[in-house]
Amino acid sequence: MNTTAIAPLDVAALRRQFPALAREIDGRPAIFLDGPGGSQVPASVIAAMVAYLQGSNANLGGAFATSAESDAVYAAARAAAADLTGSLPEEIAFGANMTTLNFQLAHAVARTLTAGDEVVVTELDHDGNVSPWLRVAEDRGLVVRTAPLRVGDGTLDMDAFEALLGPRTKVVAFTLASNALGTKPDARRMIDAAHRVGALAWADAVHYAPHGRIDRAGLGLDVVVCSPYKFFGPHLGLAAIRHDLAVSWPADRVRPADEEPAGHRFETGTQSHEALTGFVAAVDYLASLGEGETRAARLDSAYERIVAHEEALTLHALARLTAVPGLQLYGIADPARVSERTPTFSFTIEEHAPRAISETLGAQGIFTWDGNYYALNAIRALGLEASGGAVRAGFLHYTTVAEVDRLVDALDRIAAV
Ligand SMILES: Cc1ncc(COP(=O)(O)O)c(C=O)c1O
Fold first, then answer.
1. Are 177 and 342 in contact (CB under 8 A)?
2. pLDDT tens sequence across 92-150
3. Domains of the chain
């Protein structure tokens, strides 16, 4: 057992690296609880993007300095993505965002399937890992089965999930963490179940990535997709695809790029080089929160620290939120199960529309989301879709206990009206 205590994050110091966190609304510090919709970025990310645009802006493969520097950006971005996701650089594909990449990859894998083959999705997932499967199922006569949510605690019904899998299941598409309820399903069990029937384990790590270490190869995931703008980087998507699949799936490519091996076969046209530069800086920022010889090792320890801070925030938030009169919290509320969720909280307050709550909070400089956040299956399963969904407050490693308190104090005032 490792008994070495890890030093906690220095939250005050790391917050100073994020220019946006100094923002004020009507003289009060803004509180960014919209992290599950997009995080803020440290100054190093902004500087890297500016430096690229100022000094190295060019297309790839040319016989001159700025083009060579742009080639180097690509190589650095693949290496950073490999470290971040526990993959090989050749397994990485970048794209506009997760949704676009996922549609593209689903189309590619669907070309290898035949009518009657099955895909399992879940009620916990963001629609970015549901609709691509519904679309390809329509195109190719596939069957989509949906694993149900247990509305009581916002977890998946794992027995029902396993019962859906069979010899025709080819893809099991699931999320590593719910962007609505924070739930982290039992990925190990889902991957093993998928592989037992010979299906691909296809994980959406978009919400998970700022909160937990991803280890594609270690977990045995076949595909992982995520979005750097959720973990302190610029707007961008990335996929890590098991190498033999990355080199063999039919990709939509122009000639002669269609002959290129590996993940970048799924990169169509010219990418946002400035975003790739910012992405590398974001991974380096995350790694700077940890210690170790290699960037991968620093990421391991950084995430340990992030988890420790976020679990403490979760315990504090659970204790306070559940005491707000009339507040209904969706998802895991048991403090003993803190490790099964991210610090993302969706709730409603009796007699108050979610939009109205978010507006009141927004006017006080507290930024929350309301609605379904495209976690359509989950919000429908909870019976909230017709009534405006729920309010979502999402904490990140830069969130403080004082900010959680300011949120809950504001909710107390709303509930009292
Ligand atoms: C869990 C989850 N999956 C997928 C997406 C879609 O990501 P993108 O905006 O990169 O397409 C989001 C965005 O909110 C998300 O939270």
1. yes
2. 999 999 999 999 999 999 999 999 999 999 999 999 999 999 999 999 999 999 999 99
3. 11-32+296-416 (3.90.1150.10), 46-287 (3.40.640.10)
* Secondary structure of residue 331 in the 3-state scheme: coil
Task: Quote the CA–CA distance of 182 and 33 in Å, as a whole number.
Answer: 14
SS3 of residue 121 by DSSP = strand
Q: Which of 227, 341, 376 to mutate to test the pocket of ligand 1 (most atoms within 8 A of CB)?
A: 227
Residue-level pLDDT at 1: 42
Ligand 1 atom 14, closest CA: 37
Asked whether 344 lines ligand 1 (CB < 6 A), one says no
267 CB under 6 A from ligand 1?
no
105 Cα to the center of ligand 1, angstroms: 15
Mutation choice for ligand 1 from 34, 105, 206, CB with most ligand atoms inside 8 A: 206
pLDDT digits (tens, 9 = 90+) for 250-302: 888 877 766 665 568 899 999 999 999 999 999 999 999 999 999 999 999 99
Cα 225 from Cα 303, distance rounded (Å): 18
Read off the pLDDT of each residue in 211-234 and give the average, rounded to a whole number: 98
Name the nearest CA neighbour of 190 among 265, 125, 264: 125
Sign of CA dihedral 102, 103, 108, 114: positive
> Which residue type is seen at 66?
T
Contact call for residues 281 and 233 (beta carbons, < 8 A): yes
128: closest CA among 204, 48, 187? 204
